[in-house]
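SAMPLE LOG
Freezer: B-3
Tube label: C17
Construct: single chain, 214 aa
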Amino acid sequence: MLGIHDLPLFIVSGLLLNITPGPDTAYIVGRSAQLGWRGGSAAAIGISIGCLVHVFACAAGLSALLAASSAAFTAVKWLGAGYLCFIGLRMLLSRERSPGPSETRQSGEGTISLRRVFWQGALTNVLNPKVALFFLAFLPQFVAADSSHKPLAFLLLGAIFIFNGTLWCVGIAAFAARTARRVARSGQAMAWINRALGGMFVYLGARLALLEAR
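STRUCTURE (predicted):
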């Protein structure tokens, strides 16, 4: 179908990649602890939307252009690194003003709304050229070279990968929110979670800034 081959292997490989802990998982767990299941789910959906943008880019050939163009890669890299460091520093310098999980919370970071959590998750993936290169390297392995429907095949495989990943991440959000209810009652604990997320974003921004196109 559409030149796709080894679909079961693709699904299993994708699931293994999805369940591997990483920065996205840490972000979902942190937001779940702060805002409950809704916050973690907003983070998970935002991350998935960011990945979906890269899947469309892969299907349209834009990821190949990003991989081939050093200038384009560098521009996206610095934009992403700057954004990550900005939100990371904002979290590190924030001060919690009210304890307890809720849909919105007040902090030095401003009102933490589900919309903000969603867009942070989405943009941290959209502005990361490593995500684009991942899909560019992973998806074509399961599409026949002589397929006349490569864009559609990439979209279908990407949709399967993201759908499975979203289900997993929403499950993580529910589990993290449930186990963090006691911790969430402590304003000091919430402040440390916020700082941990901020430190993670600054680290990712610095690592992304040092990334070189290959």
